[in-house]
């Protein structure tokens, strides 16, 4: 039974004199999430783990967002289409099918993306709820995005499918990748036909969606809506010790976690950006993470850089700013940052508290990058660009906060208290098989 928040939850007494002391959020409840059809979620589970959605039928959504790795992949920058294996052990492949580029950004966790407050997705926010194009969303597909998507999560799900280095593959390899290079929306009908004519997928879609009566009516919209239904319901997570504490169980948090909570919402200033029920203002901030990797370059970029939100908005003031991540189950989703620069929670916390000092202390070996000999020359080349490094250093929205080592440990303890019971227990079910008959990625146990 939920109780009114005790006064101590609303006024954090331990904050230092003169320090900010933000109120704690209200407890998150089922009402904070969108509603999805369980039949569609069950179908979405199969699609999420089925490599049929990729151009070369060799990678699934789950390959880079696997529950064994907190719905991410355990890498700083992922190994996409052409790679082999799963998680930190994934390799870049061999021969003609080997990868041609690292994925430019870290694979984010998928926790609580069905929350009603989520209106923008991707590190740079290039998918958002909007009426700009008459289809409900502002996306790279602009007016070519199909109508009928049930959420911003469904809209987001369409884009990895047509990304060359993530799931589509190279233009000469398959009809999906070739169609993408004609126009972004040309590939989606090909994927939809492939799915609805494979195994019993057609019959499953007819059973799950009331607006279709025959398999040939299955469109990419139905596929995206099923994927969203699965991701939103499977990884809804509000059963952490912090959630219990907010609901009135003051014993749910350890003394260290309670001290860390006071710092998080007090003098450490974390809640200035990590605010609300899910610890995110869903806005964009520059925190000066170490730069490496191929960068998410624009067509006219001649350097391996990532300008963040500016690539979407074309506003100079958005340069090097990235979306504030939500923090439930953050303990499970290492490494951290839009490019996975830090392997530990302590490392990313220390960076937030002293970004300039952390940059000086950061070393390339801290990045979790599988060996890719034919790409390694470019992995850290951006660090040699003096002018680009100066531009990134000037774009900084956070300043130093002096905390003792023990206080940093308390903040880490609080962040670990955001881990849900079900997430920690690894209760997410990976299907034994999928309708395509293609192999399902899973962590092998001895």
Record the SSE blueprint.
Blueprint: H1 7-10, H2 38-49, H3 61-64, E1 120-121, E2 127-129, E3 137-138, H4 152-161, H5 164-168, H6 175-180, H7 187-196, H8 201-208, H9 220-234, H10 241-246, H11 255-264, E4 284-285, H12 310-313, E5 322-323, H13 345-353, H14 355-361, H15 386-394, H16 405-416, H17 421-425
Antiparallel strand pairs: 1-2, 2-3, 4-5
Helix pairs in contact: 2-9, 4-9, 11-16, 13-14, 13-16
Global shape:
globular
Number of domains as seen in the coordinates: 2
Unreliable spans are: 1-18
Main sheet: which strands, in order across? 1-2-3
Order of helices and strands: HHHEEEHHHHHHHHEHEHHHHH
Task: State the end-to-end distance.
Answer: 42 Å
CATH architecture of the largest domain: Orthogonal Bundle
Count of DSSP H/I helices: 17
CATH topology of the largest domain: Cytochrome Bc1 Complex, Chain D, domain 2
Short account of what is shown:
The protein is mainly α. The protein is built from 17 helices and five strands.
Structure description:
This protein is mainly alpha-helical. It has two domains: 204 residues, Cytochrome c-like domain (Cytochrome Bc1 Complex, Chain D, domain 2); 162 residues, Orthogonal Bundle (Cytochrome Bc1 Complex, Chain D, domain 2), CATH 1.10.760.10. 30% of the residues lie in helices and 2% in strands. It contains 17 helices and five strands. A three-stranded antiparallel beta sheet has the order 1-2-3, covered by helices on one side. Strand 2 and strand 3 form a beta hairpin. Helix 11 crosses helix 16 and helix 13 packs across helix 16. It starts with 6 loop residues before the first helix and ends in a 21-residue tail after the last helix. The N terminus is likely disordered.
């Amino acid at each position: 039974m939920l109780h009114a928040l005790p006064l101590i939850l609303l006024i954090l007494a331990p904050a230092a004199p003169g320090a900010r002391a933000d109120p704690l959020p209200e407890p998150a409840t089922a009402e904070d999430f969108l509603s999805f059809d369980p039949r569609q979620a069950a179908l979405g589970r199969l699609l999420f783990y089925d490599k049929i959605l990729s151009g070369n039928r060799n990678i699934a959504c789950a390959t880079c967002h696997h529950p064994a790795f907190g719905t991410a992949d355990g890498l700083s920058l992922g190994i996409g289409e052409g790679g082999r294996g799963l998680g930190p052990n994934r390799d870049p492949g061999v021969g003609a099918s080997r990868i041609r580029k690292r994925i430019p950004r870290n694979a984010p966790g998928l926790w609580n993306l069905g929350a009603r407050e989520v209106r923008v997705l991707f590190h740079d926010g290039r998918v958002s709820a909007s009426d700009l194009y008459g289809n409900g969303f502002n996306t790279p597909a602009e007016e070519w995005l199909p109508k009928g998507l049930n959420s911003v999560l469904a809209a987001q799900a369409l884009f990895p499918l047509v990304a060359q280095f993530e799931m589509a593959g190279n233009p000469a390899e398959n009809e999906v990748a070739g169609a993408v290079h004609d126009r972004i929306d040309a590939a989606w009908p090909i994927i939809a036909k492939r799915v609805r004519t494979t195994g019993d997928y057609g019959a499953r879609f007819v059973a799950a969606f009331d607006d279709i009566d025959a398999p040939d009516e299955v469109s990419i919209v139905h596929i995206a809506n099923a994927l969203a239904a699965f991701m939103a319901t499977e990884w809804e997570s509000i059963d952490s010790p912090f959630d219990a504490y907010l609901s009135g169980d003051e014993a749910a948090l350890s003394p260290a976690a309670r001290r860390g909570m006071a710092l998080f919402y007090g003098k450490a200033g974390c809640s200035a950006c990590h605010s609300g029920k899910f610890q995110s203002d869903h806005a964009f901030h520059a925190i000066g993470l170490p730069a490496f990797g191929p960068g998410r370059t624009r067509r006219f970029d001649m350097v391996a850089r990532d300008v963040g939100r500016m690539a979407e908005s074309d506003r100079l003031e958005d340069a090097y700013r990235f979306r504030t991540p939500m923090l439930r189950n953050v303990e499970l989703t290492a490494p951290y940052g839009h490019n996975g620069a830090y392997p530990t929670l302590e490392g990313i916390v220390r960076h937030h508290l002293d970004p300039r000092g952390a940059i000086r202390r950061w070393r390339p070996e801290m990045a979790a990058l599988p060996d890719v000999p034919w790409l390694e020359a470019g992995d850290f080349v951006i660090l040699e660009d003096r002018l680009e490094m100066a531009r990134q250093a000037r774009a900084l929205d956070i300043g130093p906060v002096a905390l003792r080592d023990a206080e940093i440990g308390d903040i880490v303890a609080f962040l670990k208290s955001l881990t849900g019971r079900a997430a920690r227990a690894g209760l997410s079910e990976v299907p034994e098989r999928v309708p395509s008959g293609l192999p399902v990625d899973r962590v092998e146990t001895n």
